[in-house]
Specification:
This protein is an alpha/beta fold. The chain folds into 2 domains: 203 residues, D-Maltodextrin-Binding Protein, domain 2 (3-Layer(aba) Sandwich); 78 residues, D-Maltodextrin-Binding Protein, domain 2 (3-Layer(aba) Sandwich), CATH 3.40.190. 32% of the residues lie in helices and 32% in strands. It contains 10 helices and 16 strands. The strands form 3 sheets. Strands 1, 2, 3, 4, 5, 11 and 16 form a 7-stranded mixed beta sheet that branches. Helix 9 packs antiparallel against helix 10. The protein is globular, with a radius of gyration of 20 Å. The two termini are 16 Å apart.
Length: 297
Amino acid sequence: MNRRVFSALTLLLCALLACASAQAEPAARVSYLGPEGTYTEEAARFFFGEDASFMPKQTVNDAIADVLSGEADCAVIPQENTLGGAVVGYVDALIAASDAFVVGEVVLPINQTLMGVPGATLEDVKTVCSHAQGLTQSAKWRAEHLPDAEALEMASTAAAASYVAEQGDRSIAAVAAPGAAALYGLEVLAENVQITDANKTRFYVLSKQPLQGEGLTRAVFVATCRADYIDDIIVRANASGLELVVLHDRPEGSALGSYHYILEAENPAGVTAAQIDALLGMDGVRFAGCFNAVEKR
């Protein structure tokens, strides 16, 4: 399906699902991990277009809470990066949000940029700040070009850019999205400081109600079980015609060897009700939504 058509349909569905009344707002209200200038905002704007109302939040939990309370129709949250792997805190937030459903997925290319205050040079930089993922993704480049610079973890890449702008110190630089430089009045010191040009991040779009209908090719399930049971769930998924494409595990918290798992499975012909039921018939498995994935090129 055409990306713009699909995004528009999902935007409308999010609004209708959350506000099923004559008073429903004409454009979806979308919460996301802020501040402005994050990759999450870029993913949200790519998915929904500029007609939606975008609300930056301090944390992923805040963004999800807005959906559950009705303050937002949808939330966009990061889940996994090519280089840094699963963003475990955000995976935990999805697992805990048992009343929210995945209704979309965005795959976004990540081009990390090093930026500093006007007039700064690479030779000035003694501290590099970014989100944990930004620091991981730029570690090899920093080891080569800024081997003595201290790494400082921030809540988001945009928060790092904002911090550099506020400090006005030439010795502090940020690894952030290219657009953050103009947004926060910074100068680009180096482009593409990530390890590889294949660097991508996957984002989920959440709503209070699952999408329904034919042609949705992905499904997400959350399973809580011992490690020796996950094989049975995967075998059942494959037997039903679903192909596993994502598997994340997080400690369940009550016993060693017991985990929460996020399983994303695919059927290019469209996930069926029978395939969903096949997994829901297993102990500890809950359905977390069906959707289509889109990728920004």
